[in-house]
Amino acid sequence: MKKRTIWILSGIMALGMTALVIVQISWLNHALGVKSAMFNRTVSKALHKVITRLEQKEVYDAVQDELLFQHNRAGSPLSPPPVFHPGRKAAMAVDTSLLKGKIENILYQSNLLDFSSTRKGKEVLVTNILRRLEATPPAISERIQPVELYYLIRNTLGEYGIREFFEFAITGKDNKIIYRTPGYSPDKDHVTRFVQPLFPNDIIEQENKLVLYFPDEHVFLVRSLGVIGYTSIALTIFFMMVFLGTLYIIFRQKRLSDIKTDFVNNMTHELKTPISTISLASQMLKDKSIPTDEKNIEHIASVIEEETKRLRLQVEKVLQMAIFDKGKLKLKRKETDIHEILSNVINNTSIRIRNKNGKLVYDLDAEDPFVPVDEVHITNLFFNLVDNAIKYSREAPLIYIRTTSNEKGVKVLVKDNGIGMSKEHLKKIFDQFYRVPTGNIHNTKGFGLGLSYVKKVVDAHNGTIHVESQPGKGSSFTVFLPYTEKN
After folding, report:
1. Quick check: pTM over 0.85?
2. Less packed terminus of the chain by CB within 10 Å, N or C?
3. Which of 346, 338, 475, 314 is nearest to 403 (CA)?
């Protein structure tokens, strides 16, 4: 698939996903708006009921006080209490009938009208209570107990199905806070404040207000959306993840496709060279125009043998990676001397290093170099690391190999002075078919399988591999192989 086509499809998918997210967000905002409006109405009703109950309680307390006063006078004529202010009768006129009804209702419900059998006595009692209530009210701190108010608010909200944590305050003139709960903050943002005047039926307005808010209001509203709301949010997140995952897979597959195309090209080049050499050698053997004694059959046979080995090695690399990918590799572990493996690798690569005027230095210092490993694969592992160190050298290669050991296993360091790698390439060097760009160096050949194979062999032995590299300063690979069967 062409890159342009992929981008077009990705753009269409992105537009569709964006539209879906916008629709879902709009629906959720609308649903939250409806829930918020219902919540605000319910809280306002509950607080109005709280204020009504506070007034009823004050009336009830006034009734109780008057009855107690009359009881203590025991037989004396009913007298007005000392708090009466005649000058306020006109202001009280509007509310007298309503308040009188409340008083008589409280007396009736409490069965307290039986203390006087005369109608005149009952009227005097009610009149005295009205005179108490029309007097200048005391300070708000004397009229309301904060603890009682808290429980009154909590219980009233509970009657309306609201059991969320709340904070409240009582304010006076100019919104000065008279009392507040410990967590109340006048500057808290993103909350709805509910304000209700306290004792609104007072003759002289006191400007006292009850201010209440819910710190976790938004959490409550989201939770109130229920299963449908949560399902909608979950599905939106799910489809966004699927969309992003699909894009990642598409572009990853495109990258792998490009890498595999390069791999096929490299493999064709790698296989074509030995095939051409073998073909040329066979033609020389078949050419009857060249005398047998001049054909140098031994040299030609040697060339054919070396090129055949080269072909076999390349094919084996591909087959080994196929085996790892299918998970069919079975390691033939046995106690093996890592120093002996490294010595063989050093001997086999020393000629190539000398031909490039390079040098290989090694310190085999591991006290216990015997590790349960598959000798063939571990040999290939270290051969690949040294081979890369030789191939990616800008000048005469300088390679350093060192072994150390501890109670858990053996560490092998392979360090070179090659072209190095940037952090961007370090993240990908173990990917199959990936080859680090070599700039002006054109003699580096391969399939991009070496380090991928190395990583798979290390993982198969429950080991680790760590890479450090800087462009122009070389690379160092540290392989750790554990004493798995010793522990």
Report:
1. no
2. C
3. 338
